[in-house]
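Fold this sequence, please.
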Amino acid sequence: MSRNFLIYGALAVAIIFEVLGTSFLKQTQQFTKILPTFLTAISYLAACYFLTIPIKTMPIGIAYAIWSGLGIVLISFVGLIFYKQNLDAAALIGLGLILAGVIVVNVFSKSIEH
């Protein structure tokens, strides 16, 4: 397995756990519901752990930009699908710009070893 596959795989897992944690966060009802609170905490701990893998070799700002950018886009769609929260045109344009930024960083940045 290539090193980049492992780095980006760990980053993808970190993003998935971050999105899961944020999804459960709404259900905690300000940390008064035990199971969602536990799932939120475990998800965020796992997200942080898996984020430590890419930052060993990738600049932390770049890794965090990818992690947070994709997390924002994905959690917005989780809200749309599971919580029936609407995304207007401005929100969709903004999310598109975030996604474009992540793509620019990954494709054109010399800070990331390709």
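The chain has a mean pLDDT of 94. The longest helix spans residues 3-27.
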